[in-house]
Amino acid sequence: IIARAHHSKGSRRILTIFIEDPAIHRINIIASRYADYVTTNDVATIPSYQEQFKADGKNPDNIYWQPVLLINEKTIEPGEWTGADYDWIFCGYAYHSRVKFLASILENLKGMKGLVKDLKGLVIGNGYPHKFAEYVEVRPTQTENETMKLYRKSKVIIVKHRGLNELGEGQTVKAQSVHRGFIESYSGAVVLIDRKPDERCKDRNFVYYEGDFQSGAEMLKHILLRPDIYSISEIRSKQIVWAKEYTFQRQMPKLLERLKW
Q1: Which of 26, 31, 42, 51 lies at a CB distance of 3.0 to 4.6 Å from 20, suitable for a disulfide?
Q2: What is the per-residue pLDDT for 85?
Q3: What is the pLDDT of residues 147-190, one digit of tens each?
């Protein structure tokens, strides 16, 4: 994302807003050379941007951390959460760790209500084994709005980050604060996630599991069978408030205020 600001005297400042992917960070470094200011959602990348700014004779203090700005309220179609069609949804490309995780989840859930098919699940993403369709509905990668429509029809969204060994040869930095969960929370469904967001993202209200399939399956069972114990309605409502705080429309004015633009 590139933003430009013009002074009354005609000078120009360029800001780049990076939503980091550790696998293509090298490309972002090159793009940063055309900017006067950089914001990134991964604190681990700040030193490399600062180093590049120093090499280019620019002020390294013009590098800022900024929460991810993936949610654009102007482009996401309005809608309400119902949770009526699916018990759970899993979304993401079929990296090996996710395929293994989901296969184990499906096996583990067989003991719930007798058969795994008694739970209505949906997997969204390209590359998953055809055999998954025997137990759960599988759809290819969807557009942002289509994904959001499906999220709003689910009680729970399971999130698993890809493994650090699955980022490809282009990885030059180990991610520290790149986290999913923002868009998922915006849908209104309960987010079951394997990693806590950066501590600077205040008032986050996810349900966490340890990253392995046993922990994920057990937490999913608890949420669906005993929602009263986990105060699921309260968690869900808090997640929506939290997610709306991190939309492009809410965060961009704060960022420009920090930059004194």
Answers
A1: 42
A2: 94
A3: 999 999 999 999 888 776 676 655 567 777 777 788 888 898 98
Measure CA 64 to chain center: 20
CA distance 235 to 227: 10
What is the C-alpha separation between 11 and 3, in angstroms, rounded? Answer: 14
Tell me what pLDDT residue 115 has: 47
Q: In this structure, are residues 143 and 72 in contact, taking their beta carbons and an 8 Å threshold? A: no
Paired tokens of 39: 């914001």
Share of the chain above pLDDT 70, in %: 80
CA separation, residue 220 to residues 20, 48, 150, 161, 200 (Å): 29, 39, 18, 17, 27
Q: State how far the Cα of 259 lies from the Cα of 261, in Å rounded to an integer.
A: 5
